[in-house]
Amino acid sequence: MATTIPTTLPPVASHYPDRPQFQGFMKPGRVEGEVQNLEVYGKIPDDIDGTFYRVMPDPQFPPFIQDDPWFNGDGNISAFRLKSGRASFKQRYVRTEKFTREREAQRALLGKYRNKYTDAVEFKVRTTANTNVVHFDGKLLALKEDAPPYAMDPDTLETLGLETFDGQLPSLTFTAHPKFDPATGEMICFGYEAKGDGTPDVCYYRVAADGKFLETVWLVAPVVAMIHDFAVTENWVVFPMIPQVCDLERLKQGGEHWQWSPETPFYVGVLPRMGAKASDVRWFRHPNCFPSHSANAYEDATGNIVFDFGLSEKNVFFWWPDAQGNSPRPETLHSQLTRLTVDPRSESLELTAANVSVLQMGNSEFYRVDDRFATKPYRHVYFDLMDPALGTDFGAIVPQLGGGYPLYNSLGHLDIETKHTEVYFPGRTHMVQEPVFIPRRGSTVEGDGYLLALVNNYATMSSELHLLDTKDFTKAQAVIMLPLRLRHGLHGNWVDAAEITK
Ligand SMILES: [Fe+2]
Q1: 140: enclosing H helix or E strand
Q2: How many domains does the chain have?
Q3: How far apart are CA 201 and CA 56, in angstroms?
Q4: What number of other Cβ atoms are within 10 A of residue 420's Cβ?
Q5: Residue 490 CA to ligand 1 centre (angstroms)
Q6: Of 93, 275, 373, 457, which sits 20 to 30 A from 181 (CA to CA)?
Q7: What gap in Å lies between CA 96 and CA 239, rounded to an integer?
Q8: How far is the centre of ligand 1, averaged over its atoms, from the C-alpha of 310 (Å)?
Q9: d(CA 143, ligand 1 centre) in Å
Q10: Cα of 443 to ligand 1 centre, how many Å?
Q11: What is the pLDDT, as a whole number, of residue 66?
Q12: Is residue 14 included in any domain, yes or no?
């Protein structure tokens, strides 16, 4: 589409800003292409046959917002194909409207994170599609919670276009964290600010494995706040709200989309998964705190909802302070894997300390499970962990880290039943990104398989994939070397080869 460039545009530099989030390991890489036969140290088991897709924000042009957050960049999708003991790599940007028009104009046109009033041009859809990539109904969906997905070809990574599910999508927004029923393949989704910026509307919908919408329920949230991740059980859906609130007037004045609100409770919306009416939603309230990513959820024998997720007492998104400008220092943040138990039939909507227990004391994030046990009782959870005692050489790597986000130096595995945690430490100059679990071929035992994660090596300033066998968690079976540096990313998923060819 032709872009009309206004005669007066915000000036942009010909290089990235001299800010931590654009320097060192975080300098945008902007690579598209492929590398066959990556170097492998160790052995990739022969029974692994599939692709690890992940996405990173990777701005193709320097922004005109000087202190732009690191995750406001264009979605660049990496695909690691593992087969017959070999690994290959492919990477391609999502051709969003933003990406395409900026490439045509040869400069940044998008303004602040989720503030269209700061853009240099008017976009129909301004998403960067940079938060998650899932495989559904034969397509990859590149996701960010401010817009519909962009569909991509799983093999070529060619962008197919904005995905409206043949016009069935009722919402202007689509979560970056859809859930999948492991038995039926049903995709359970929602969008918040679903009628536009600053609206309290939440749209909940279920999509059958063949792409047919099964039901839609429109809800109204008690505040306009971020619902980044959520959780699903056999019969319930759980919406944890981060007390970062949006105000349309602030947006119109060129301010930030989000502001931390210490006086806002941590709301937990609970809705029947099937057959609900708008009035069925119940918004439980817990004292102010910060819920991060979900691990899993299920119903116990009494019918209570058991929801496991990361929880921090402080504002993890420290770059969006409160109205007075207060925010915690990033080194004081500590997010723990936490269990919230909610009786959906309870008369009281108040949640207290009695509803909450810490499952793992470490500073952790990016929780993953064996997805065959999603929405069901489960035992094993995997995550990124920061434990300074493991021996990371901070003195050597700090000048190279770049910044703007918390980092994790190891992978953890918690056996919820035994309460035992195993730790994999990738090296003294390394940090880990989000892992994915790969089931062992032919095994139906929960947690029997492999864990795969992208690892940043600050000594070589390049990226590596570390592959663990969950039967021998503390050492890598294979380290797969990339001849390039991949900036810190957000989320990804493993797709078995059999899924692609279905
Ligand atoms: Fe996320």
Answers
A1: strand 139-143
A2: 1
A3: 28
A4: 9
A5: 7
A6: 93
A7: 28
A8: 11
A9: 10
A10: 29
A11: 84
A12: no
Q: pLDDT band at 404, cuts 50/70/90?
A: low
For residue 388, give its domain range: 20-500
Give 145-169 pLDDT, tens digit per residue.
999 999 999 999 999 999 999 999 9
Task: Give a yes or no: residue 9 inside a domain.
Answer: no
Q: In Å, what is the CA distance from 50 to each residue of 284, 307, 367, 441, 492?
A: 41, 30, 21, 11, 13
Instruction: Report the C-alpha gap between 170 and 186 in whole angstroms.
Output: 17
Q: Is the pLDDT of residue 194 over 90?
A: yes
Strand-strand pairing, 201-207 and 187-192: antiparallel
Alpha-carbon distance of 213 to 197, in angstroms, equals 24
| Annotated binding residue 430 | no
Confidence at residue 45, expressed as pLDDT on a 0 to 100 scale: 98
Name the pLDDT band for 290 (thresholds 50, 70, 90).
very high
Structure-block tokens of residue 301: 């024998």
Distance 365 CA to ligand 1 centre (A): 10
210, with CB counted inside 10 A (0-12, 13-18, 19+), is: exposed
Distance 292 CA to ligand 1 centre (A): 8
Neighbours of 413 (CB within 10 A): 22
pLDDT in tens, 349-371: 999 999 999 999 999 999 999 99
Instruction: Provide the mean pLDDT of the chain.
Output: 96
In a domain, 48, yes or no: yes
**CATH number of the domain where residue 219 is located:** 2.120.10.30
Report CA(394)–ligand 1 centroid distance (Å): 26
